[in-house]
Amino acid sequence: MKILFLKPGFEHLGVLHLASYVEQQGHTPQLVVDPVLFADSVFNSARLSHLMDYGEPVMRKIAELKPDAVGIPVLSAGFAWANTRARQIKDRLGVPVIFGGPHCTAVPEETMRTGEADYAFVADAEIGMARLLDVLEKGGDLGSVPNLIWRNGDAVVTNELAPLIRDLDTLPFPAKDLYYDANPGHGTAYNIISARYCPLRCKFCYNATMEKIYGAKKWGSRRSPANVVAELREGKTKRRFNYVRFFDDLFTADEAWLSEFAPMYARDVNVPYHCSLHPSFVGPKVVEALKLSGCREVQMGVETVAPDTKKTIRRGESLDQIRDGLARLKAAGIRNSVDIIIGLPGQEVDDLRQAVDFFNENRPDLIMTFWMEYTPGLPLIRDAIARGELTEEDEARINIGQGVNGYYTGGRTLHRYKSSARYHFLFSLLPILPRKFVRRLVSRGRLGLIPTWVPPFFMTAIANLLFSDRHNATRNEMARRYWHYGAKRVLQRLGLLYPSI
Ligand code: B12
Ligand code: SF4
Questions:
Q1: Co-location of 62 and 200 in the same domain
Q2: Based on the domain organization, do 132 and 33 belong to the same domain?
Q3: How far is the CA of 350 from the centre of ligand 1 (A)?
Q4: What's the predicted TM-score (pTM) here?
Q5: Residue (of 9, 23, 28) closest to 67 by Cα position
Q6: Range of 350's domain?
Q7: Residue 301 CA: which ligand is closest?
Q8: Between 20 and 30 A from 132 (CA), which of 57, 144, 148, 488?
Q9: First to last CA, the chain
Q10: What is the CATH number of the domain that holds 368?
Q11: 175 falls within a domain
């Protein structure tokens, strides 16, 4: 059966893993990438997004490929886009549309009740998707397809979950060629994932949602270091890349794994890489292994330094751990970027001031400031409602993928938008501002001098441009994507180029 995956924006490892799995099971995967410009959290403009919409060329391409079914990955922020395309596909081709990904996992019933999908999947979908395609092709019982959500008359049925795939080494490598054939020259990095999920369950994160489904058992599926290195070695034979980006939630969670991985990676891959970590997992052994393996840059989620707010989001690390971790990384010559969140429930402006004080003394290379984005199913939503920072109506909107943009649902941040935006400005430039200047600015109450007309997303872009590693793959890929698809669409709109993707 021909299954076409329609993917917005960037490379999507979930889809590429699914594609290679269903191919192994006898089906034929296809991929169409919809560029979806100006609808992400960096560049967001309804008017430009409409102007640059690739709807018609995307639909034409799908029709040319004549799939038997179409699969669409759905993040909550992309639920509206997924529904629009699903409707168009069903009207034009009449083939079934299947949704999957974090939005469906978080709110399965709502996905089916409010969306256009014929079928959707909860959580990891390799086994279920292959089974569904068999049923659609040869007939059979939909009730036997694990993780499937489907309509039986007026009822929405959620089937039993398959156990998590524990031995990820048994899965085929992701179907990278599908993406790179469609987007030649877009990636200078090799994106890879070695584990699924995270041992922690911070309340603002998808992993807290997953806990409702798999409990504490969700953690524990990790590919062996040899399997990860084998994929990268194979990747090297197919295309050139000068950077590797590990998409794992918490790359350094397992010291033993890391110690086995480090020498193997250094010997067989030897390409600088990026990974994400957590302040509780930056001990001496971890940093030693990162250094030995050639890690170039890490992103550390700090989110807040205020003890009470840390408790609210279920974070247990101490300020000493953050301080020591940053110092160790610096001593090892590993670039480090920290994440801060504005708009957490209960967060006061003073929390942000504490963060400025802390990072002024313990300087990371880059501070990435995010505004709290409530996505469906987060336990933090109930906390925000209890504090009167969100309403039940807000939750209903969040559950259908609306209002997930942090600038609009940053809890009560909106009431102190100006001061929050000023702190965002300051965090963005902190790494180059003289320490004394920052101290004076904050202690003498001169923050009002910082302009509030500069949009926060612009400051994030500036910080990225100034301080992120020149190999920073997200930045480079984003620039390429906008340049390639933006210029192409403008020429198409002017009638100078035939509309295609
Ligand atoms: C890497 C990553 C990124 C990368 C790449 C994104 C991508 N499209 O792959 C980048 C940096 C670009 C990114 C950006 C964003 N991300 Co992100 N990202 C992740 C991360 C850390 C890993 C994703 C991954 O590769 N997982 C591994 C693969 C194997 O799993 P998977 O993708 O979930 O796929 C499996 C199942 O979900 C399912 N499935 C997935 N797709 C489909 C499709 C079909 C048809 C079917 C049947 C099944 C199916 O089957 C797959 C295989 O089992 C996750 C956290 C996480 N643990 O998932 C967050 C996560 C997905 N991101 C998230 C968010 C919010 C974002 C942003 C909106 C953030 C922002 N403010 O900009 C943007 C959106 C960008 C976009 N438009 O795609 C949230 C989504 C929450 C939600 N409910 O929507 C997550 C869950 C993190 C979190 N906050 O908790 N992200
Ligand atoms: S450490 Fe990161 S990935 Fe893990 S639960 Fe917390 S925020 Fe999510």
A1: no
A2: yes
A3: 32
A4: 0.94
A5: 28
A6: 195-207+245-254+274-472
A7: 2
A8: 57
A9: 24
A10: 3.30.750.200
A11: no
